[in-house]
Write a structure and sequence with these properties.
The chain has 379 residues and is of the alpha+beta class. The protein has 4 helices and 21 strands. The protein is 23% helix and 37% strand. The strands form 3 sheets. Strands 1, 14, 15, 16, 19 and 20 form a 6-stranded mixed beta sheet that branches. Strands 2-9-12-11-10-13 form a 6-stranded antiparallel barrel. It has a 4-stranded antiparallel beta sheet with strand order 6-5-3-8. A hairpin with a 5-residue loop joins strand 14 and strand 15. The two termini are 71 Å apart. The N terminus and C terminus are likely disordered.
Length: 379
């Protein structure tokens, strides 16, 4: 009996204490950093790997047979069009030219004499015609001998940088040989060849036809370069043409850009990364990368803060990265606030204490980070 009364008294004391205490307080708002979205006009670019190639390239080959007597250039030097590169032994060709000139003089005198005799009917018309034909043949033989003599002076067909010599003094060369004597390359300006998937070409056309993308005006073919050491080439280039045939193995088309190269910094065969301007996107929405999350299915989403400072989870579609930001295709609008700092502490429906995010520094230029295509998420 005593134990029962003691238990009842203890229960009453506990109940009294509970009733006299203050009710529990509501959960405090979670502090987060938000980023306010805004529409902007964005020039879209694509960064593609490529290689440089010479603007013009000429293989120097002999056009007559003979022994190389002299090499008249320094390997790697700049040569001009028509500059002599080699001298082939011309003794035989000079003698042939002298003989052809003598035959020409004799044929000319005979034809002139026959012309005077024809007027007096001292010779037949056939004799005169034969003399005139011989004269013309002698002219052709003399011209051919002169050309062969000129060909002993091997000239540069273009202006540019001459490479290493494949022959030396004393080498025997022949007209029509397969091996070139040297190669001259014009590298100012210089070409940069890149490849782009045909799927990207079709995507650009669809966006332009739908009005989501505008041409970049006079700069629509502007191209910039990043070299293999990470530096940016100071000269901008222009897109020259796009290949009309799709490579069956890679499904890509070749694009060629032309760059000024006055100092010779770009050499044929260099690996580069070319940034091509595709067009202008009006009303583009860019979201910081740290504000865009993905679920287990790979679906992109963001936490949106409404006017009552409550959080809503919003599925979005991203198209590509632009520097350190995502280009949002759908799901977000200009003026909306998204959580960029403290995303791990929020969930749908909770109230937050929103303040501008302090660690957001949007960049979208070439120096800060090249733009690259990324797989777009789906709704």
């Amino acid at each position: 009996m005593i134990r029962t009364l003691s238990a009842l008294a203890g229960a009453a004391m506990i109940a009294g204490c509970s009733d006299s205490g203050s009710p529990p307080q509501a959960d405090a708002a979670i502090p987060v950093g938000v980023y306010t979205l805004k529409e902007q006009t964005l020039t879209l670019t694509t960064t593609l790997p490529g290689r440089t190639s010479s603007y013009r390239e000429a293989e120097v080959r002999p056009q007559v047979d003979g022994i190389v007597q002299k090499r008249l250039f320094k390997e790697g030097a700049q040569v001009e069009k028509g500059q002599q590169l080699y001298q082939i032994d011309d003794a035989i060709y000079r003698a042939e030219y002298d003989r052809a000139k003598a035959n020409l003089a004799a044929a000319q005198k005979l034809a002139q004499r026959y012309e005077r005799l024809l007027k007096t009917s001292a010779i037949s018309q056939q004799q005169y015609d034969d003399a005139m034909s011989s004269w013309k043949q002698a002219q052709a033989q003399a011209e051919l001998a002169r050309i062969n003599l000129v060909y002993t002076r091997v000239l540069s067909p273009i202006s540019g940088k001459v490479g290493r010599s494949a022959v030396s003094e004393g080498a025997l060369v022949a007209s029509g040989q397969a091996q070139q004597m040297a190669t001259v390359q014009q590298i100012d300006p210089i070409y940069v060849d890149v490849t782009q998937p045909i799927t990207e070409v079709l995507r650009l056309r669809r966006e332009m036809q739908a009005g989501r993308l505008e041409k970049a005006g006079q700069d629509q073919a502007r191209v910039t370069l990043r070299l293999v050491d990470g530096s940016v080439y100071p000269q901008a280039g222009v897109l020259q043409f796009s290949e009309v045939t799709v490579d069956q193995g890679t499904g890509s088309v070749t694009l060629r850009a032309e760059f000024p190269n006055p100092d010779g910094d770009l050499l044929p065969g260099m690996f580069v990364r070319a940034q091509l301007e595709e067009g202008v996107r009006t009303g583009a929405i860019l979201a910081p990368q740290q504000a865009v999350l993905r679920d287990q299915m790979g679906q992109a989403f963001a936490w949106v803060v409404d006017d009552e400072d409550k959080v809503e989870r919003r599925a979005i579609r991203t198209e590509r990265t632009v520097g350190n930001q995502w280009l949002v295709g759908s799901g977000l609008s200009s003026g909306e606030r998204i959580v960029a700092e403290g995303t791990q502490r929020v969930r749908s429906g909770i109230k937050v204490a929103a303040a501008p995010a302090a660690g957001i520094a949007p960049v979208n230029d070439l120096d800060a980070g090249a733009q690259q295509d990324q797989p777009a998420s789906t709704n």
